[in-house]
Amino acid sequence: MLVPTDGTDGTRIDPDPSERRLSGLYAYPEGATVRANMVTSVDGAAWGPDGRSGSINDAADWRVFRVLRALADVVLVGAGTARAEGYGPLGVPRGLGGLRRGDRPLEVAVVTGRGDVPPGLVTTDRAPYVLTSARGADAARRSVPADRVVAVGQDEVDLRAGLTALAGRGLRHVLCEGGPRLLGDLLADDLVDELCLTTTPRLIGPGPGRVVGPVGGPAPATVRDAHLAHLLHSRGTLLARWVRPIG
Ligand SMILES: NC(=O)c1ccc[n+]([C@@H]2O[C@H](COP(=O)([O-])OP(=O)(O)OC[C@H]3O[C@@H](n4cnc5c(N)ncnc54)[C@H](OP(=O)(O)O)[C@@H]3O)[C@@H](O)[C@H]2O)c1
After folding, report:
1. Is there a domain that residue 169 lies in?
2. N or C: fewer beta carbons within 10 Å in the chain?
């Protein structure tokens, strides 16, 4: 059971195989949008004892996670996460195809500066897009067809150019599933329009990083505002949709 606290009606969002109500809360705005979806423990851990986020998330998070995938054109993911979490072929979550624009497949775009495409993504029928730099382009082309390699930037991946290239292929509704390094780089370049952040009622203690990496480095130069579009809760789990103010 999910309960919205968005100041509208406070009614419950009961389990629904088609997730119509939930998908309305997470509808993408007009135009190209980069949405990130992350989960954290109460004390800020981005992963649990097994080194994966699966050990800190829960059923409520999973429910929203599925809806976000169903609504996206492309899942953008860092190579580290794809390796750690064992990403393989991604499909539209079962039963949620009706939420999509048209009958487009759900694409994957993996970011790897070295052009080192995680093995689970190489063997899929539908190759991922690979956002890489000139440095990693040759290696990436050894793993996926050349038309799937987006080489942007010389040594570093130019994420803004990469997102523009995806939008040029009709992939305008981007869902970034992390990880922390990629989200940190997107935030540093002011490329994140929304952050869907789940906080689960767990305390992990020292060790793991937080949802934005890397830890350390110089103090940030800028503080940017975020507006709470809605907050859902379920048995102590908080699911927030934070959006950047318009204008
Ligand atoms: N809590 C959550 O919601 C959540 C979500 C996702 C992941 N995680 C966890 O986070 C951990 C992984 O963290 P991570 O920071 O290593 O993940 P990551 O950002 O997915 O991966 C880092 C790697 O991805 C590539 N990469 C990412 N951004 C890049 C950029 N701007 N330019 C060039 N290459 C880039 C690089 O790969 P190459 O070395 O191939 O160049 C880099 O080594 C795992 O434990 C995972 O379970 C947690």
Report:
1. yes
2. C
